[in-house]
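INFO batch 0412 | record 1 of 1 | parsing
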Amino acid sequence: MTVIAPQTPRAIQTSRASLSSGHLPRWTPWALLGIALVVAAAPFGVMAAASGSAFNIAGSLVVGAILYLIIVYVTSRIVEGPRKALDRFVTGVVTSAFLIAMVPLVSVGWTVISNGIARIDPLFFNSSMRGVLGEGGGALHAIMGTLLVTLAATIISVPIGLMTAVYLVEYGRGTRMSKIITFLVDVMTGIPSIVAGLFAYAVFALIFGPGVRMGIMGSVALSVLMIPVVVRSTEEMLRLVPNDLREASYALGVPKWLTIVKVVLPTSIAGITTGVMLAISRVIGETAPLLLTAGFTDAMNYNLFGGRMQTLPVFIYSQYAYQGIPAEAYVDRAWAAALTLIVIVMVLNLVARIVAKVFAPKTGR
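INFO prediction complete | emitting tokens
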């Protein structure tokens, strides 16, 4: 008697989906997308050739995406039915929305990199603009000013925002005071940046007199913009901490303040760090409040409490708005400063992710 050995899973051949089985093959959406793009590009190519103008890439992509959604929906409805057709249609809409949202980001990144890379050199990072007219010079004074002003603003705003969020979640939940604070925080979130600059200028002008300009004034103005972002993000992260953790700590006899310090805050440290970095990214590129408070200068200044202090956003504005001869040198410095500012934000976000990963509570044994 012959015994037939059972076939292994690798030996079993799976049949590909076909039109007769009620399923579209996996390559069908990609094929339909290629056909839609080709069909959409054809009239734009003809119009470009007839008029002698450049080919409209954006228009052909938009028309191709719309044509693809129509084709894939009709094809799927005929073969797979209305439910699967609607699923493919919605998937295409979501994917198209994502790609549309990425277009400005990619465009801005490419524009800044392509225009700013030409002036990225050692001279740009180790010299200031003192005594420089025309070509040459650098943005060291602006880079240091941005780091110092933003660091001081972070030192001011993070403790205030963190303790405010702790009060709203842990101590003042449902009270009238917490409702008033929440309302004021929501109002501060929508304050224009120029108003924050005017507030900081008015406070220091009352103390030191009109016309005063200092780096710490810019830090105060930026902290006004940072505090509501830190409060709202920290508040949401603290609310995500399960109450079981708090109750377990209370059951062991741990006081409430120590529970917050040892249990609640470490559990939500990753989200809090992300919120702080979001607040820093929100204010590090502000120009209007720093023009009113910190002013601008061409020389180095490491003292936040003495004299004017240059920052990268104001440096970009001044280089582009007050162009000298040759104008290309000023424009190149502005683009290079913009690229430097983007790199600083990216580095800060990377550091924040590393810190959040290191200090986040371990879930495994």
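INFO post-check: Residues 9-19 have pLDDT under 50 and may be disordered.
INFO record closed
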